[in-house]
Design brief:
This protein has helices at 2-15, 20-27, 31-39, 56-69; strands at residues 17-19, 46-48, 51-55. By secondary structure, it is an alpha+beta fold. It has a three-stranded antiparallel sheet with strand order 1-3-2. It is elongated, with a radius of gyration of 14 Å. It starts with a helix and ends with a helix.
Length: 70
C-alpha cells in the first residue's frame, strides 16, 4: 500500500535526524538560541508537519566549525 510505504520512508528519514530538544542538549543552548541559528542559516533543518529535524552530520559540522573558532 502506498500510504504504508510513505509512512515507512518518513520514519526511516526521521531516525537519522535529531529534534530540537536533542540538539539543544547536545549544543547546550536554549530553544530560542537554536531558533536564531536556524533563522540566520547557521544550521540546516527540515520540517515535517510542525516538527523540526536536523541531520546528525549537520550538527557535527556546526560543532567542528564552532570549536575551531574557540
Amino acid at each position: 500500500d502506498l500510504h504504508k510505504a510513505i509512512r515507512r520512508q518518513r520514519q526511516m528519514c526521521i531516525r537519522d535526524r535529531l529534534d530540537n530538544q536533542e540538539v539543544c542538549l547536545i549544543l547546550k543552548i536554549s530553544p530560542r538560541t537554536l531558533q536564531n541559528l536556524r533563522d540566520t542559516d547557521q544550521i540546516s533543518y527540515s520540517q515535517i508537519g510542525k516538527k523540526i529535524y536536523y541531520k546528525k552530520e549537520d550538527i557535527q559540522k556546526f560543532i567542528e566549525k564552532h570549536n575551531r573558532k574557540l
